Structures are given as C-alpha cells and as structure tokens.
Amino acid sequence: MSAGADGLPEGFPAGYGEPTTSYVLRVNGEARLIENAWIGENLLYVLRERLGLPGAKDGCGQGVCGTCTVQLDGVAVAACLIAAATLGDREVRTIEDLDNDTETGEVQRALVEFGAVQCGYCVPGVVASACALLARAPEPGEVEIRRALDGHPCRCAGPHPMVDAVRAAARRRVPQETHSTMMFNVIAPPSAGGAE
Q1: Mind giving me the DSSP string for 153-190?
Q2: Which residues, including other chains, have CB under 8 Å from residue 35's CB and lie 6 or more apart?
Q3: What is the block-wise mean pLDDT of the chain (196 residues), using blocks of 10 residues?
Q4: pTM across the whole model
Q5: What's the structural domain count of the chain?
C-alpha cells in the first residue's frame, strides 16, 4: 500500500491518529509518563507496546477472551476495552507485579497442580482475576469463583480445573484453625480457681 504526502496510507483521512496527548499512568506502583500517544490507545496497547509489559495478551480485542485481564484499583478488567488516557490516578497492576506476591504463587501452583495450565496464553489473565477475587473474598464459594472466571473461556483445560485450582488456593491461604479457635474461645469454661 503506498503512502501519501503525510506519510499515511492512501485513503486514510487527514489527521488520522490525532489528537495526541501525554499523560501519567500509574502502573505497578510507579508513575509512568506516556508521551505523544493517540488519545484512543487502549490500556493493553500502552502496557505492551509503550511500557514493555507483555504479560497481558492480545486475544479477541472485544473484552470476551480474558487474555488481556489486568487489575484496575484491585478489580479485574479487560485492558483492551479501556482508553489508557482516561485513567487518571487509578492504579493498574499487571501480572509482572502480581508475580511478586506470595498469594499469586499459591494461585499459580494450584493452576499447575489441577491441570488448568496447558498452552498458557490465558494464564496471566486468569491469575489476575483469581487474585482480585481472593483479595475481596478470601473464602469464595463455587458460584463466586465461576463468576470471577467467567470471562476466561480456556479452550485447553476448560473451566472446571480452573475453578478447582482457585478453590484450593483459597483453602491454602485461609488458616483452617481460624474457625475452630474462634468457637473454642466462645465456649471455653471459666478458669479454675473460682472468682477472685
């Protein structure tokens, strides 16, 4: 395809790719300056192409496949659907930063253990969603887990191993003695020796 005088392919309207803007994006606890960016660039593009963070993957581009999932203020979101320039002071966390958390390691180990990792393409998004769920609901039920993973239609392993893995990771993170200790404290008899 030949280019016109403005460097754009023939047939593209004049001014295509404008307006541009510069802004600060908070990613993984760091303020990052994004300069001369087309105002419509989605978060996924900015993360991968401008900031060199390839963990979130480009799948469907329509927010359906879950491969581009990152956390925005602790909530799992499809990065392909969000205009990066609109985020202001909101905090973006990608798998590159989540990998530093012990809790993330539990989720990843459980996904491997339950056979929910095969081609691996969707795994960073699954981990981001699972960690967001466990941060807000440490002991989620099956319905909560399925809702959190609903946007991750893994065609290799299917949804059941992912659900089992997240359930197992949740059990490992919450000490099992918590409930019995609390109950014991409530029903413990008064101390021996009588009243003072």
Answers
A1: --SSS-HHHHHHHHHHHHHHHS-THHHHHHHHHHHPPP
A2: 22
A3: 55 67 96 94 97 96 95 98 96 96 92 92 95 96 96 88 96 62 45 49
A4: 0.79
A5: 2
Q: Where are the beta strands (DSSP E) in the chain?
A: 20-27, 30-38, 69-72, 75-78, 91-93
Q: Is the domain of 55 the same as that of 123?
A: no
Q: Are residues 139 and 73 in the same domain?
A: no
Nearest by Cα to 96 from 53, 44, 46: 53
Three-state SS at 5: coil
Q: 63: exposed, middle or buried (C-beta count within 10 Å: 0-12, 13-18, 19+)?
A: middle
What's CA 71's distance to the chain center, in Å? 4
Residues 91 and 25 in one domain: yes
